[in-house]
Amino acid sequence: MNETTPQPATSLPGYITSATPNPMDKRAPWYKNTAPTYAGIFLWFVFWDPVTNGGQSLSAGLGVALLGLLLSALACHYLFYLVPGLFGMRTGLPLYIVGTSTFGAQGGFIMPGFLMGVLQFGWLGVNAFFSSMLLYNTFSGGSLTADSTYPVPGHAILVVIWAALAAFMGLKGIQYVAKVATYLPLLPLIILLILFVKTVGGVGSFDPQVLVKAGKVAQPLSAGAVIALMLTYVVGFFATAGAAGVDFGLNNRDKKDVQMGGLVGIGLAILVTAGLSLLIVAGAYGQAGANSPEGVTATSLMVSVVGEKAAKVFWLLLALAAFPPACFSSFIAANSFKTTLPKVNPFVSVGIGTVVSIVLAMFGWAGKLVAVFTIIGASFGPICGAMVADYLLSGGRWTGPRAGFNPAGWLAWALGFVVGILPNLNVAVPAAPVLAFVVGFVVYFVASKIGLQSPVVPLSGPLAEATK
C-alpha cells in the first residue's frame, strides 16, 4: 500500500471532520491540570490498598517491593503516557481522533474510542465492589475482603445503589461532582500519612518471613517474580489512563508540561501512594513482632493501628473519596458512546454497561484485581505500543487519519492482546501488560516497514495544521 495514495476528504467520517484542536490560549501549566488529575487517580484507595497483592509483593522484602514499584512508575511514565501526551500536546486533539493515524479513520471509531468507553464499566464495577466493601464493613461490623465469598446480601445492595447513583451522576450531575472532586482526594493522602506515622517505627524491623510463618502468604515469590507482579499490577491499572494521556496532553502548552505533568502526577504519585501503603503494612508487622496482626493491606490493618472507631471513620472517608472516580468512569463512557454510537440514547448504553458493572461487583469478579488489570493491560498495552511506534515512524508528528482500518495497527493490537491475556488463561507470562506493549510496538513497526499501512487521508483547515 502506498502511503501517498490520495484519498478523497469526503471519505472521513463526521466525528473526525467536526473535531477542533484545543487552542493554545485555553491551555495551562502542568501543575494546574495534568499532574493533579493524574495524582487523583493514584490517590484512589483501590490502587494503593491492594498493592501488597495478598502479601506477595512483600514476600521477598520491602526493598524489592519498592524497586518493583519504581520500575513500574518509570514504565507508566515513559512507555505508556509520554508519547500519547506529546501527541495530544502537538495536535490539541483528543484520543479518539489522534488514534486514527494508528488504527484508521474507520478503525479508530472502535479502537481506542469505543473500547475506552466499554472498559470504563469494568472500572465502575471495581469501584462499586471495593467502595461497597468498605461501607459494608463500616456499618455492619463485618470483615469482608476481596477474597471473601460473594455475593453477600448487604454488600450486593450497596453495589446496586453505588453503581446506579454513580452512573446517574455521571450522566446528569457531573458538574456537581467536579466541584468537590478537587478536594476529596486529599482525604486518602491524609489517612495514608496518619497510618505511616503510626507504623513507621516498625519498618526497620520488618521481616518478610513473618508473613510466611503467619500463613498470610500462601506462596512466597522470588525477587524477580515480585518485580514482575508489581509491573503487572501497576501498569495494568494505569494502561487506560496512559492512552488517555492524549486527552491530558491537549491541555498542555509544551513538552515540559507533558514531561513534568507525568513525572509528578504519575511517577511521584505512584511512589508516594503505593509506597506509603507498602511501608504501612511492613511497619505494622514490624511493630507487632510475633503477634501477627490481621490483614495484609493498609485498610485491613487500620483497626489494629488506630482502633476500631477511627478505622470505621477512615473506611467511610475512603469510600466517599472514591465516589467521584465512579462518576467520572460513567461520564467518560457516556462521551465515548455519544461519539461512537450517536443514535443510541446514552441512558440506554450507559444503563446496560452499569448492569454489567453491578454483576461484576456483586459476584466478586471485580475484586480479582490482578486478573482485571491483566485484561486492561492486554487491551491498552498494545494500543500504547503501536502509538509509540507510529510516533517514532512519523518523526514525532501526527500524520493525520489513515484510510479505513489501518492493518498495521490492528495486527499490532491483536497480537499484543493475545500475549497480554495469556496469564488469565493460566499461561505464565511475566509483566504481561509491559510485554503486550512491546509486542504492539514491534509488530506495528515491522508491519509499517513492509507496507501494511493504509494511506493517509488529506486534511484541510485546522485539522491540517495539527499534522505540522
Walk me through the topology.
Blueprint: H1 14-17, H2 34-43, H3 45-48, H4 62-91, H5 95-98, H6 100-103, H7 110-140, H8 153-172, H9 174-181, H10 186-199, H11 208-213, H12 223-243, H13 245-249, H14 255-288, H15 302-306, H16 308-321, H17 323-340, H18 346-362, H19 369-393, H20 407-421, H21 432-449, H22 462-465
Describe, in plain words, how this protein is organized in 3D:
With 468 residues, the chain is mainly alpha-helical. The protein has one domain: Hydantoin permease (Orthogonal Bundle), CATH 1.10.4160. The protein has 22 helices and no strands. The chain has helices spanning 14-17, 34-43, 45-48, 62-91, 95-98, 100-103, 110-140, 153-172, 174-181, 186-199, 208-213, 223-243, 245-249, 255-288, 302-306, 308-321, 323-340, 346-362, 369-393, 407-421, 432-449, 462-465.
In short:
It comes from Limisphaera ngatamarikiensis. This protein has 468 residues and is mainly α.
Features:
CodB; 0% strand; single chain; membrane; transmembrane helix; Hydantoin permease; mainly alpha; transmembrane; 66% helix; 468 residues; Cytosine permease
Top-tier CATH class: Mainly Alpha
Tell me the domain tally.
1
CATH superfamily: Hydantoin permease
* Share of residues in helices: 55-70%
- Based on the structure given, which CATH architecture is correct? Orthogonal Bundle
Biased composition (Polar residues): 1-10
Transmembrane segments: 30-48, 60-81, 93-114, 152-171, 183-206, 226-250, 262-285, 313-334, 346-365, 371-393, 405-422, 428-447
GO molecular function, one term: cytosine transmembrane transporter activity
Protein name: Cytosine permease
